[in-house]
Each structure stands twice: as C-alpha cells, then as structure tokens.
Amino acid sequence: MGRLDGKTAIVTGASSGIGAATARMLAAEGARVVGGARRVARLETQVALELDVRDPESCERFVDAAGPADVLVNAAGLALGRYPVDQSTEEDERTVFETNVNGLVRMTRLVLQRSLREPGHIVNMGSIAGRWAYPNGSSYVTSKFAVRGFTRALREDLLGRDIRVTTVDAGLVETEFSKVRFKGDEAQAKAVYEGTRPLTADDVADCILFAVTRPLHVVVDEVVVMSIDQSSGARINRRT
Ligand SMILES: NC(=O)c1ccc[n+]([C@@H]2O[C@H](COP(=O)([O-])OP(=O)(O)OC[C@H]3O[C@@H](n4cnc5c(N)ncnc54)[C@H](OP(=O)(O)O)[C@@H]3O)[C@@H](O)[C@H]2O)c1
Question: Which residue among 7, 83, 134, 144 is the active-site one?
Fold first, then answer.
C-alpha cells in the first residue's frame, strides 16, 4: 500500500533534477504521475506529455490531457548566466521571468480552474534565492522572490478550501541547473559545487514527499533546505 495510492500528481520539469526525482518518489508511493517538460523523450513518468510552461497553449493542452489531479508540483525552472545587472540581457531576463514566474503562475491557475480535485495540494519549487539576494543573479533572484510572493498570495486566496500550498526553498542542489545556467559549459557548472557537499535532487524530493503525505489538516507551509556547507544565499563553505 502506497501513501498516494489513487492519487494523480502533475509534475512540471519532470525531465531532469528535482522534478524527475519527485516524480519517481511520488510514483513509488502509488501516485499516477503525469510528467511535463519540453524534452518529452527524457520523461520516465507513467504519463509523459510535452509542456513548455512559457507557452499558454502548450499549458492548456497539457492540463486538459493530464485530466483530474490531486497534486501539482511546479518544478520547471531555470537560471541564465552569472553577471551584474548592467551586463544582463533582455533575452535572458525574459526567458527566466517567463519560465519561473509566468509559467508557474499560469500552470497553477489552469490546474485550479480545470482539474485540481479537493483535497488538493500545490507545491512550488522556490529557492533560497527568493529569501536572500546573492550577487550576479538578479533575474533569478527576482523570479524566486516573485514565486514566494505568489505562494503567499495563493495561500490567502485558497483559505477555506481543502487545497494545501507549500513552497520548498532549496539552496545548492547538484542537478543540471548550473549546466543550463552556464549554457552547457560543464567546467563552470562543476565549479559551482566544488569543495561542497551539495543537496541531491532526492534530498529535495524527499521534502516534497513529506509535505504531500501529511494529514490534510497539516500544511507544511515553507521548507528551507540547504547543504551543511551553506548558511545563506551567498555564504558557502568550500573545502578546497
Ligand atoms: N539546483 C538548484 O541548486 C536549485 C536550488 C533551488 C531551487 N531550484 C529550483 O528547482 C527547480 C528544478 O531545477 P533543477 O535543479 O532540478 O534543474 P534541472 O535539472 O535543470 O531541471 C529543470 C527542469 O525544468 C524544466 N524546464 C525548464 N524550462 C521549461 C519550460 N519552459 N517548460 C517546461 N519545463 C521546463 C526542464 O525540462 P526541459 O528542459 O526538458 O523542458 C527540467 O526538467 C527550478 O525551479 C529551480 O529554480 C534549483
């Protein structure tokens, strides 16, 4: 008997990292998992559907094809570049805001409007970047502060309904995140985690699993989870 038998969970960004690990853990507890991402061939979920969260039509198609759901995990997201604001570009800012903010808000709204059953649960992947600014990451930091604001607003709007809302704000997690941020530069990506013991995608998925398997009256409102080698957004201890 799994703790999520009979439940359907939608996981965005399920083709890699935290989303993929979460999809695996929810499925192991008996959930029917509908995974979404642009790289549909990489999805290993029971139901695998193409999804570009930046595209309203793609989101609508995805939500309708996924059908009724009990859990939504908004894990799709990315950062681009590490540079001061005056070296940022219109294109990078647009991609980050459209993915992390508009995409997450849109997916949440559509699932609420069309398919979330009650009791339901919405889990947003925030970041400690939504709590502490760090240098040279302005568009990502801005987007994650926005995710935190949206999560708070969602809690207010859903009060009185049997829909739980959780944000999981993680620090350094070793996934493909840095590879994407540095546009495929493996050396730069590796350097981010050098000399540290970063979180794994499974560590974060475990937090999500904990939140969604509590009794209905228990809302795990905010989870902040970091490596032992990190104390805040910009403070990282390297053993090298
Ligand atoms: N790694 C960290 O240190 C860290 C820390 C705190 C929070 N987070 C957050 O955790 C979430 C997952 O990141 P991760 O570390 O697991 O990185 P990852 O391994 O790069 O995974 C990112 C996922 O997001 C998906 N995605 C990106 N753009 C998308 C789009 N337009 N439409 C649909 N899916 C899209 C990717 O799928 P496709 O490319 O196939 O579309 C991929 O599945 C993000 O929100 C990130 O901000 C990460």
Answer: 144
> Which residue among the candidates 7, 140, 179, 183 is catalytic per the annotation?
140
Q: Is the pLDDT of residue 240 over 90?
A: no
pTM exceeds 0.85 for this model: yes
pLDDT bucket at 234, cuts 50 / 70 / 90: confident
Is 140 one of the catalytic residues? Answer: yes
Six token digits for residue 127: 């970041």
Residue nearest to atom 44 of ligand 1 (CA): 77
Q: How far apart are CA 134 and CA 73, in angstroms?
A: 26
CA of 1 to the centre of ligand 1 (A): 30
Q: What is the set of domains in the chain, with CATH numbers?
A: 8-225 (3.40.50.720)
Q: What share of the chain is helix, strand, coil (3-state, %, to 5)?
A: 45, 20, 35
86 Cα–ligand 1 center, Å: 25
* pLDDT reported for residue 167: 98
Q: What is the DSSP letter of 41?
A: G
Q: Is 134 a catalytic residue?
A: no
Ramachandran class of 154: left when φ > 0, alpha when ψ lies in -120 to 50, beta otherwise: alpha
Region 2-17 average pLDDT: 98
Instruction: Give every CB contact of residue 185 below 8 A, 6+ residues apart in sequence.
Output: 179
15 within ligand 1 shell (Cβ under 6 A): yes
Mean pLDDT, to the nearest integer, of 195-208? 98
pLDDT score of 215 more than 90:
yes
